Amino acid sequence: MSELESALRRGSSALLSMQNPDGSFPLYQRTPDQPWRPCHPLFATTSVVLAAGSLMPAPALQRAADFIRGCRRSDRTWEFDPTYKIPADSDDTACALTVLARHGGGLVGPADVALLRSFWRPDGGPFQTWHQADAVWSRRDRDDAVVNCNILLALRELGAPATDAETSSVIRLIRASEAGCRYYCSPTTIAYAARRGGLPHASLPARITAKPTSGLLPTAQWLSLVGQWDEDAVAPVLAAQSPDGSWPAEAWFTAAGKPPPVWGSAAISTALCVEALHTARAARGN
Question: What's the gap between Cα 174 and its chain centre?
């Protein structure tokens, strides 16, 4: 068995071993120089399924979808972590709806399209991050390029692709965010989410589609983004795999603060690396 095949097999097994009995995948948060501490697993679970759901066995995928469905609020949105007492957000809602559209057995429909579009700024977009929130949460500096791309993905999966106006507004936000966005740690994540959301590669700034020079997750996302075999990118991903088959937690998204907190988990890292290696292997043709 080749090193690549072994890494994929061990990574897939490790990912399944991290799934909790309730179907979720763990998420952790930390600040600089502090250890990771557990927090609500909703966003880790959607992140894992969006990256590697097609490679998971049906029972594990169903448990994850059931967990996500069970986190839905009475107003039909999702929230990042109920203990934080913050508004429901379009990112969790879009990612959850995408999972349910793909794997939920017909549990979504036109009302969910209307729900997503309720986040749209009526003066020309883009989509807001926070739902029906007060002035502090509704500021434009909280609009996020990756969040908007995840909404485009959800709209497409729900059978109501983004309009020209919606697409144009999201592309403008991406171009204004090429140095980085509000909530996600790597500019490569913008390009990864944009292509997943259906935006053409040519519409994206070269700065965010360039091969990363460091970072496990940016490198993995870049491999999935470009859909090609690149030995110089595959090698560090293979080298970073832990003896148990997983890949280590690395900062996936962040929030403002002093010091700024970051969130991530070995489950997210492993799902993104498995997706990347699977994509690279397919591009190589074996």
Answer: 16
pLDDT for the residue 107:
81
Token digits of residue 216: 């496990």
Neighbouring C-beta atoms of residue 24, cutoff 10 Å? 24
Show the tokens assigned to 130.
Answer: 């926070």
26-33 mean pLDDT: 94
Question: CB neighbours (10 Å) of residue 286?
Answer: 8
Residue type (1 letter), 235: A
The answer to whether residues 76 and 115 touch, using CB atoms and an 8 Å cutoff, is: yes
Q: How far is CA 10 from the centre of its chain?
A: 22
Amino acid at 165: A
Distances (CA, A) of 204 to 27, 52, 192: 30, 24, 10
Distance separating alpha carbons of residues 93 and 5, to the nearest angstrom: 35
Q: What pLDDT score does 131 carry?
A: 80
Tokens in use for 57? 């066995």
Classify domain 3-284 by CATH architecture.
Answer: Alpha/alpha barrel (1.50)
| pLDDT tens by residue, 167-225 | 999 999 999 999 999 999 999 999 999 999 999 999 999 999 999 999 999 999 999 99
Alpha helical stretches, state H, the chain? 3-17, 42-52, 58-70, 90-103, 110-117, 145-157, 164-176, 187-196, 206-209, 216-226, 231-239, 266-284
Residue 1 pLDDT greater than 60, yes or no: no
